[in-house]
Write the structure tokens for this entry.
Amino acid sequence: MQAKIVAMQEEPKTMLVTGGAGFIGSEFIRYTFLKHPNYQIINLDKLTYAGDLFRLTKIASNPKLNYKFVEGDITDAGFVTQLFNQYDFDYVVNFAAETHVTRSIFNPAPFMHTNIEGVRTLLNAAFHIWKEPAENGKRFLHISTDEVYGSLEKDDYTFFTEEMLPRPRSPYSASKAEADLVAQSYFSAHNIPVLITRSTNNYGPWQHPEKLIPLVVSNALEDKKGKPIPIPIHGDGRDIRDWLYVGDHCAAIDTVLHYGKPGEIYNIGSNNEVETIEIVEKILDVLNKPHSLIKFIPFRENHDMRYAIDASKIKNDLHWEPKVSFDEGMEFTIKWYSGSLSWLQKLKSTSDFRNYYQKLVAGTDAEEAEEIIVSSADINDYAVEAAGL
Ligand SMILES: NC(=O)c1ccc[n+]([C@@H]2O[C@H](COP(=O)([O-])OP(=O)(O)OC[C@H]3O[C@@H](n4cnc5c(N)ncnc54)[C@H](O)[C@@H]3O)[C@@H](O)[C@H]2O)c1
């Protein structure tokens, strides 16, 4: 689903998208080709457990699009430098990151390495290779998150603004906050035209099943030999997130990339504050499944209770606003996951996911962790579904 996009008649540009095999990066590539069909996009992705080129099957097989995938690591300085030398990038949009908060609590090292060292490596290549970047229209957009601001109280009616100091509360958000500071330092010290966006929680198709909405849909619709699969929810599920449809996020990124002011941070949100439990119950109602599937598990340490963004700067200065209502976006998303179960099962059946899930529910009921593991027979349907996409 996408609000109508009008293709632009404009000069071709060459864009490096990092992390383009992930959830938001792949949607951004689709969005960019719809809006800027004559751009060239180089998608650099390490293909970690979260990256899947299947998300871009249609893009990669479309001969009209100037698209290339390059497998590699944003922390590999030699490789990144060679790429910057090979392509004269006009724009860099950095999505590549380790992104799952719970995983960062289990093992923070890859978060610190990719999220901080990765952005430094990319910016350093831009610094050494781009000639007079500001004058030559170069732009480096670093994708950050509202999680750098920390957590708000549930009933204090305040919102995160761009002026607030970062107060990260998880290794994930700490690594993203540090990356933002590194990016800002390349703007002040080296005049690299850096822009930073901080968005709220995204939802929409193609998200990894470790994240809330695809996990709830797939657990609700699957069963293991006739036995229902429980849906693990932290605490009482009363934590609040501000939910943004991924296509609206991509439109905001495109706007900031082309019209934002270098050196600035832009919050992106849609004033859609919803309790986690409300989302889960809504999905179960749509799928006609009982609420008894919900299995409350202990809060992860320092669980943030409320995120809420003040997005008035991007609305007032750049005239962006979200187009997809929460009801409309959720209806489409639930339908999409219901029709893409074999893709979700493919990701859920990996040993990586099994290990993660067992840690997630550890201390509650080890047997329930097993319930989620699909049989390999289910994966055979995947190829059939792939052919139709
Ligand atoms: N998902 C959200 O709700 C949300 C909200 C706000 C901000 N963000 C930010 O948006 C960006 C994208 O998030 P997402 O949800 O699409 O993440 P994702 O986990 O789905 O995708 C991340 C991608 O980065 C790639 N990657 C990881 N390490 C890499 C490395 N060292 N080199 C090259 N590629 C690497 C992975 O293979 C994957 O394709 C992240 O920077 C995240 O912090 C996400």
Q: What stands out?
A: Confidence is low (pLDDT under 50) at residues 364-389. The pocket of nicotinamide-adenine-dinucleotide is lined by residues 18-19, 21-25, 45-48, 50-51, 73-75, 95-99, 114, 118, 143, 145, 176, 199, 201-202, 208 (CB under 6 Å). The chain is about 40% helix and 15% strand. Residues 212-239+274-300+327-388 form a domain with the UDP-galactose 4-epimerase; domain 1 fold (CATH 3.90.25).
